Amino acid sequence: MGFAKDYQNIGWIFSKLRDHKKALEYHNYALNEYERMNDTAGMAREFSYIGSAFSNLGRHNDALECHNKAIAIDRELNDDEKCWRKITKSWLLLL
């Protein structure tokens, strides 16, 4: 799995500390690792986490773009449950 999970965990810690810029940085590191490994499920998770970080930074258009990428990957993986959770997150950003 390389460093992807480590980067992901560090990103979550920064999210909990409300340092969303650092969270975004580490989730992007994780995304790059998942892309390098061609781990599409990991990529979908990271796009969702990156979308949440963008939302917390007030960058809602970027958040929607990331959540839509996660949804597209989940659809390719036929993971309807995760897909619907991400669609719900996307809708909540519009409210």
Structure description:
The chain has helices spanning 4-16, 20-37, 40-56, 60-76, 80-94. The chain has one domain (4-94): Alpha Horseshoe (Serine Threonine Protein Phosphatase 5, Tetratricopeptide repeat). The chain is mainly alpha-helical. Helix 1 (4-16) packs antiparallel against helix 2 and helix 2 packs antiparallel against helix 3 (40-56). It is globular and about 35 Å long. It has 5 helices and no strands. 84% of the residues lie in helices and 0% in strands.
SSE topology:
Elements: H1 4-16, H2 20-37, H3 40-56, H4 60-76, H5 80-94
Describe the structure using short key phrases:
mainly alpha; 84% helix; globular
Mean pLDDT: 86
CATH superfamily: Tetratricopeptide repeat domain
Described by the principal axes of the CA atoms, the overall outline is: globular
Highest CATH level, the class: Mainly Alpha
Radius of gyration: 12 Å
* N-to-C span: 37 Å
Task: Offer a concise description of the structure.
84% of the residues lie in helices and 0% in strands. It is mostly helical and 95 residues long.
